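Duplicate of #3305? Posting structure anyway:
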């Protein structure tokens, strides 16, 4: 197995996603590879720093404002789509009714 594959295992190890066999294989490799040990230390430091970063607080009412805006926009789209459908139906109907001659169903004139 190449170090590239072990790099993937390092990330999975930090996330606690390794099987026992993968964990054993990784530990064995880390005992032999100083580059991967260094990478693991760097990743652990970064992980620790990121866990220490406090999440930004969202302003009060942001979730409800965004939800309302999305619902309003969806309503605009639905009304536009309905209007377009109605216009198309009206146009196709007037196409038949403005032509000379009797209608023979939706597929043509006599």
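Output from current build:
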């Amino acid at each position: 197995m190449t170090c590239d594959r072990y790099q993937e295992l390092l990330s999975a190890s930090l996330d606690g996603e390794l099987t026992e066999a993968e964990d054993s294989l990784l530990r064995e490799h880390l005992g032999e590879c100083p580059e991967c040990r260094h990478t693991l230390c760097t990743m652990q430091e970064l992980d620790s720093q990121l866990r220490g970063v406090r999440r930004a607080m969202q302003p009060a009412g942001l979730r409800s404002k965004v939800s309302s805006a999305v619902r309003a926009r969806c309503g605009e789209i639905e009304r536009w789509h309905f209007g377009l459908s109605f216009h198309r139906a009206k146009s196709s109907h007037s196409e038949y009714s403005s032509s000379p001659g009797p209608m023979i169903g939706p597929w043509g004139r006599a």
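Confirmed duplicate; merging threads. The radius of gyration is 32 Å. Residues 3-48 form one domain.
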